[in-house]
Amino acid sequence: MAFQWPIRVYYSDTDAGGVVYHANYLNFFEHARSEMLRQSGFEQDELMQQGVVFVVSNINLDFVRPAKFNQQLVVDTQITKLGGASMAFEQQLLDQDGQVYCQADVKVVCVDATSFKPQPIPKSIKQELARVS
């Protein structure tokens, strides 16, 4: 089951040619993962207070076609692996016809908010994400 987060390409997301600047795809994907966590009942500011932070440890992007100013798109996010201290995601930026604009394989690690050393994903989060993925 995939989580889908709609986006619109704003002028500030684009370069002088009206095409999404390559680094902004990272923002689209990050926002979708954050909203997936929020929809599952976990607010990142509350997790930080509990000493839990999620950080990207690896990302691989494939730019398929240029997204342009004012397009309405959706970020499709799927958890492909849920490990002890890490999660792997497959994310795609799609239009309403299912055409892929960019895709990413992302590895996220759960770390301690103070030391930034890896720690196990809290059981409550792992159970909920396993249920929705």
TrEMBL record:
| Keyword terms of this UniProt record | Hydrolase
Q: Would the keyword Hydrolase be found if you checked this record's keyword annotation?
A: yes
Q: Which Gene3D superfamilies match?
A: Hotdog Thioesterase
Q: Name one Pfam family in it.
A: 4HBT_2
What are the recorded GO MF terms, alphabetically? fatty acyl-CoA hydrolase activity
Whether DNA damage counts among this entry's keywords is no
Task: Kindly give the CDD domains that the UniProt entry links to this protein.
Answer: 4HBT
Q: Which domain of life is it from?
A: Bacteria
Q: Which family does it belong to?
A: Belongs to the 4-hydroxybenzoyl-CoA thioesterase family.
Protein name, as recorded: Tol-pal system-associated acyl-CoA thioesterase
